[in-house]
Amino acid sequence: MARKTSLRDFQAYLSTRLTNAAQGHGAASWLGIEAGDEAWLVDLSDGGEIVQAPQLAPVPLTRPWFAGIANIRGNLHAVTDFSLFRGGLPIPHNSSTRLLLIGAKHGSNAALLVSRMLGLKNPEDFVAEVPQPDDPLWCAQRYLDTQGKAWRKLSVRELLADREFMNIGV
What's the burial of 18, exposed, middle or buried (CB within 10 Å: 0-12/13-18/19+)? Predict the structure, then answer.
């Protein structure tokens, strides 16, 4: 019971942080996620709700990285396996797997299937690296944390505008 209470408290805390970030209050924070073997950062103002990955309804004649459709409280969300989309291995469905609902702020019911959440990150704990010229606009920013771990920053707006991401048909 204590674990459920602390998970509920953490979700309430994170929801408050997301709301405050979206309204421009408080210090800037990033949400850390893991997709396959890559660590990613998402602005809290761009991030959406985080939910346990539900059963997905498969959609025929779509690209391999399109994981399917999820029903989240009566709303259908198009789910992309973010690791597979990036060219990595498919994300296994287990107790750590989450959906990051990224499109609501931008008028799209898009969700990313990610391996796990890595928590809130302080931007001051990261040092920018030189971007690679062949990276898409939505993942051009690279960082190193204080332990030397490499991170990439996701631009949700740019991802949702990317033709490759939006073209799920084969």
Answer: buried
83 contacts 115 by C-beta, under 8 angstroms: yes
Order of strands, sheet of 150-154, starting from the edge strand that comes earlier in the sequence: 116-121, 30-35, 38-43, 150-154, 141-145, 126-128
- 3 state DSSP class of 104: helix
Q: Pairing state of beta strands 150-154 and 38-43?
A: parallel
Tens digits of residue pLDDT in 38-80:
999 999 888 788 999 999 999 999 999 999 999 999 999 999 9
The pTM score is: 0.82
Measured distance CA(57)–CA(69) in Å, rounded:
5
From CA 144, how far away is CA 15, in angstroms rounded?
Answer: 26
CA 35, distance to chain mean position in Å, is 8
Largest CA distance in the chain: 50
In the chain, alpha helices (H): 2-22, 82-85, 156-161, 163-166
Distances (CA, A) of 70 to 1, 26, 62, 79, 108: 28, 32, 15, 7, 14
